[in-house]
Structure formats: C-alpha cells, structure tokens
Design goal:
Two copies of one chain form a homodimer. The termini of chain A are far apart. Chain A contains four helices and no strands. Chain A has helices at 2-16, 19-28, 36-55, 59-88. Chain A is an all-alpha fold. The first copy, chain A, is elongated, with a radius of gyration of 15 Å. Chain A has one domain: Monooxygenase (Up-down Bundle), CATH 1.20.1280. The interface between A and B is large, with 39 and 39 residues.
Amino acid sequence: MLWSIVGTIAAICTTVGFIPQIIRGIKTKELSDVSPIMLTLLLVGCSLWLIYGIHLKNPIIALANGFTLSFVVAIFLLRAMYKRNNSKK
Amino acid sequence: MLWSIVGTIAAICTTVGFIPQIIRGIKTKELSDVSPIMLTLLLVGCSLWLIYGIHLKNPIIALANGFTLSFVVAIFLLRAMYKRNNSKK
C-alpha cells in the first residue's frame, strides 16, 4: 500500500512536471533553450512507454506516459511557434 | 521478448533524452528557458521512481531513473551556474 503510494506520487511528479515548462513557455514566449533533440527522444520514449503500458495492461504506466506525451507535444509545438514568431521580428 | 525490447528502448529514450539538454546548455551557456519547477518535480519524481524500482527489485526502473536523476541534477546545477554568471555581466 505504502509502495503503491510512492509509485503513484513518482508517476504524478514526472508527468505533471512538464506543465510548469508549458506555463513558463507561454509566459516568456521563448523556449529556445529547451533542446529539440531532448523533446524528440522524450516523444519517442513516451510513445513506446504508452504502447508498452497498454500491452502490460498497466494503467499507471499507460496513463502517465499518455499525459506526458501530450505535454511534450505541446512544448514541441509552442517551441516551433515561438521560434518562427521570434525569427520574424 | 519483443515487448522487453519495446520497454528497454522506451527507457533508454526517456533517460538519455536529457543528455542533449545538458550538451545544449553547455554550448549556449544559457538554460533560463528551462523551468526550475519542472526540474524540481522531475528531481522528486525520479528519486521516488528510483526508490520504488529498488523496492520492486526492478533493475530497469531503478537504473533508468538513477541515470535520469543524475542528468536532471546536472541540468539544475548548470542552470544555476549560468544564471549567476549571466547576471554578473
């Protein structure tokens, strides 16, 4: 029981952890310091974790990575948008 | 067998994914766009995943999160260092 709580809190932290990055990006309109290679690897990694979680029928792995994936996609799109807008200036 | 490969590739991607961020930071000497709240949550999350992985005696969870934790700590320290240096200028 205690250990499921530890695992759940761990999953929540590493999932919702990407939300402050989205908020910071929207506030500063700048995400160029965030590595696009990191985002690409996280995108591939989370997609595979999601597939793996569905295969294992493990809802924590599947859900946590499904959410993380959507946050990483959001950071990627915001980064591309701000890069385009900032280069126009 | 196929599924262990999927899980292993997933773990490798989400772990080594942070290395390009370290390299980018060292190259540009700038990590201010990276959210410190994200780094804090990843730090707590990976630490708990590491403890959870050790408890489960699952070497993939433990190792992957041990490495990710060290990369996140490195990004955190580099960010703090560059922030201090850049504010001195």
